[in-house]
Amino acid sequence: MREKTLRTVVAFHTTTDALAVETYCAAHGVPGRLIPLPTIISAGCGMCWSAPDAARSAVDEAVRSAGVDPAGVYQMLLS
Question: Residue 43: its pLDDT value, please?
Answer without folding.
Answer: 76
